[in-house]
Amino acid sequence: MKTTQKLKGQAAIVTGGDSGIGRAVAIALADAGAKVLVNFAHNHDAADEVVKIIKDAGGKAFAFQCDVSKEDEVKAMFAAAIKKYGTVDILVNNAGLQKDSKFVDMTLEQWNTVISINLTGQFLCSREAAKEFMKRGVVEKRSAAAGKIICMSSVHEIIPWAGHVNYAASKGGISMFMKSIAQELAPHKIRVVGIAPGAIQTPINKPAWETPSALNKLLELIPYNRIGQPQDVGKLAAWLASDDADYITGTTIFVDGGMALYPGFADNG
Ligand code: NAD
């Protein structure tokens, strides 16, 4: 299983590491040799299961509860990782959710919840990570960079999404957030990159794939004609965190089977 250990000796925090994409990212980073704080908001059992998978494969991990939209909880999470592993080298800002509604019916609570977790959560976690990276600097035998921040975005950072304006606005915000901090932090040898998944088979979008007719409708939007798996994103995150991607910063990689290629235009529009 472990062919390479390109993240050996590095410590990572994966937010929302107990489910779906975050779970696959945590396992992929551990598989590449990283020690992982598996963050969860509510489901301790699911986080413990991810920790067990990592430990059974010979890796190191622990679970930590934190609501990424709460400043004091985010600070406590970084303090716990630093206490356990000495530092943090990799942050994967993965936590996110949807609170869907027609625009005119959307409540302020639905708007604020999504923006607070999906966007402000990335701000709070990235700020703590950047402070730690700048304090420590580059440790050459571990990585060419002082630290890596991966921001989980979505194809909806560029594709408008009626009925999901809070979610699309949060992901559009992540795009500019990621680029702006990448510009500011690059001189400190900190890399910041985005990942924009298309349709990945996780609990967040279960209605879109749980019946054959829903899946067929979804596949019309995916030129590559298959739904994505969490591991498709996990493998990309592990690669982006490694020195193989050392010259990549301030850009977003789409992992979407072509969903962002405007498939509606494939047959003459
Ligand atoms: P998921 O529902 O399986 O996972 C979401 C994770 O976020 C869970 O672990 C949950 O506990 C965590 N979370 C929610 N609120 C939190 C909070 N306040 N603090 C900490 N953690 C919190 O869904 P997923 O598909 O794995 O989504 C992961 C990320 O990928 C999200 O940012 C989502 O927007 C993004 N994404 C998913 C898809 C997809 O098709 N599945 C597509 C594009 C982007």
Automatic annotation (TrEMBL):
Keywords: Oxidoreductase. GO terms for biological process: monocarboxylic acid metabolic process. Its EC number is 1.1.1.47. Residues 10-203 form the Ketoreductase domain. It comes from the Bacteria. The keyword Oxidoreductase applies. Belongs to the short-chain dehydrogenases/reductases (SDR) family. This is Glucose 1-dehydrogenase.
